[in-house]
Amino acid sequence: MNKRNLSAILRCIVATAFLVLYVMAYIVFEKTVVEWWKPVVVGAVAIAVTGMTKMTRWRWLTTTDDRTLNGLFHVYAVGAVAVGVFLLGNYWLPVRDNDVTADGRAGYSETVVVEKKEIVERDKTQRVGRHRYRKTGVRYEYYIGVVFKNGMRKDIPVTRSVYNRTRQGATTELQLDRGLFGLPVVREVGAGQTIQDQQR
Fold first, then answer.
1. Cα distance between residue 187 and residue 178, in whole Å
2. Distance, CA of 58 to CA of 138 (rounded, Å)
3. What does R_g of the chain's alpha carbons equal in angstroms?
4. What's the burial of 179, exposed, middle or buried (CB within 10 Å: 0-12/13-18/19+)?
5. pLDDT tens for residues 139-153?
6. Per residue, what are the HEC states of 88-152?
7. Global pTM?
8. CA distance 85 to 42
């Protein structure tokens, strides 16, 4: 493998790593009690602070002097790092402050109202060639929309069993942690709940 090919592979790995950061941040965002605009603001501030004058530093990766392309990649890369650090750091580094629930578990609990339930159908695909995929089936993702005491609404991914025993219009209990940046993180939904919902 020559040096040129190795350099191209390295650039591809770096670009993909930023995309993985976005995906991981979104997965964590679904379990974090935060308005959507806050991570966006964090990313925008990071991009502004680093300054668009730094965009020429991405020439080694974009292999071009085009200011527009380098500027777009600067937004893409810095945004990924900022949003990733903000959401993943908050999720992975909880600040417990000796919080203990009544049954002795770490964190704290909060009762919320189940406003809605939703099943999302996703296609399963398999790669069969370059840029070619075929459908191999479907998978289902389960969500409940809850309302907190402060009025905030949040759609939370849950397992099928939790979805089935949660009733729309009823209350359920969330087990939460306080994240590093003060954002509550949902660790468990419906602990000890046994209500069976017949409305699928």
1. 10
2. 39
3. 21
4. buried
5. 999 999 999 999 999
6. HHHHHCCCCCCCECCCCCECEEEEEEEEEEEEEEEEEEEEEECCEEEEEEEEEEEEEEEECCCCC
7. 0.85
8. 10
